[in-house]
């Protein structure tokens, strides 16, 4: 099983041929990579971010944390294996469950998702998908058992345990950072990234509504999860 950094595969091939004459071992290496990648669609291989480590900050702590968003990919038996730290590619807020830390996640995504014959409900609590930065997306339930998203939008009052969802719909439960909704700021960046508070200015209304939204993650059955905007039957973005 070989590590594959999806954004550099083509570059890797081209450098081998442009910088030197490939020997038999190099050619065998390339052929093995091609065989491993066979059956894995481009949209699955090429959607991942943080294949080069990126440092971010927890806005609920003092100083600069320099947590690393990092993703490593490999292919095995027709599945994509994702190793990640579980840290997003944007500054974040841990909330009262502070504080997030780097973890060692191993995720498996089928290379060819198949529509199930019978409906299976995703769990209300715990990870149900991952983002393209390797961060888990949780179901709607928060710790005490209520709906974390409904609570965030003030549909009820939680009197058992304080729950606060931070920027981009995420927060931490102990060391585990995760999203409950949104996560679209993965592909959004404020005009002035030098200001550490810029991420608190994020709002879903700032997402570009004139283009098809990119993939923000994958469900564990292998189907991609897109942002809010897509094409209608006439090819117009809605």
Compile the SSE list and pairings.
Layout: E1 3-4, H1 9-19, H2 24-37, H3 42-45, E2 54-56, E3 67-69, E4 71-76, E5 79-84, E6 105-110, E7 127-131, E8 136-138, H4 148-152, E9 170-173, E10 176-179, E11 215-219, E12 224-226
Antiparallel strand pairs: 1-4, 2-3, 4-5, 5-6, 7-8, 7-11, 9-10, 11-12
Give the number of DSSP strands.
12
Strand content: 15-25%
Average pLDDT across residues? 82
Largest sheet: 4 strands, antiparallel
Alpha-beta classification:
alpha+beta
- Which assembly state applies to the chains in this document? single chain
Span from first to last CA? Answer: 41 Å
Give the radius of gyration.
Answer: 20 Å
- Side-by-side strand order of the widest sheet: 1-4-5-6
Helix content: 10-25%
Element pattern in H and E:
EHHHEEEEEEEHEEEE
What would you call the shape? globular
Low-pLDDT runs: 1-20
The number of helical segments is 4
Q: What is the count of distinct domains?
A: 1
Structure, described:
It is a single chain. The chain is of the alpha+beta class and 238 residues long. The protein has one domain. Helices cover 14% and strands 21% of the residues. The protein has 4 helices and 12 strands; from the N terminus they run E-H-H-H-E-E-E-E-E-E-E-H-E-E-E-E. It has a 4-stranded antiparallel beta sheet with strand order 1-4-5-6. The model is unreliable at 1-20 (pLDDT under 50).
């Amino acid at each position: 099983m070989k590590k594959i950094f999806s954004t550099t595969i083509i570059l890797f091939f081209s450098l081998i041929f442009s910088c030197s004459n490939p020997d038999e071992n190099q050619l065998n290496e390339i052929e093995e990579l091609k065989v491993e990648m066979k059956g894995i669609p481009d949209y699955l291989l090429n959607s991942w971010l943080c294949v080069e480590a990126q440092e971010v900050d927890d806005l609920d702590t003092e100083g600069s944390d320099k947590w690393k968003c990092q993703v490593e990919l490999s292919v095995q038996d027709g599945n994509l294996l994702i190793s990640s730290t579980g840290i997003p590619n944007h500054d974040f807020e841990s909330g009262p469950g502070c504080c997030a830390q780097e973890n060692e996640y191993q995720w498996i995504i089928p290379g060819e998702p198949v529509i199930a014959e019978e409906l299976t409900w995703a769990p209300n609590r715990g990870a149900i998908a991952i983002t393209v930065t390797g961060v888990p997306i949780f179901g709607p339930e928060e710790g005490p058992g209520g709906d974390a998203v409904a609570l965030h939008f003030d549909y009820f009052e939680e009197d058992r345990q304080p729950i606060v969802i931070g920027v981009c719909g995420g927060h931490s439960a102990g060391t585990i950072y995760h999203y409950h909704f949104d996560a679209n700021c993965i592909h959004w960046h404020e005009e002035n990234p030098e200001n550490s508070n810029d991420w608190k200015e994020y709002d879903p209304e700032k997402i570009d509504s004139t283009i098809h939204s990119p993939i923000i993650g994958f469900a564990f059955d292998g189907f991609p999860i897109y942002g809010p905007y897509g094409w209608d039957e006439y090819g117009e973005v809605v």
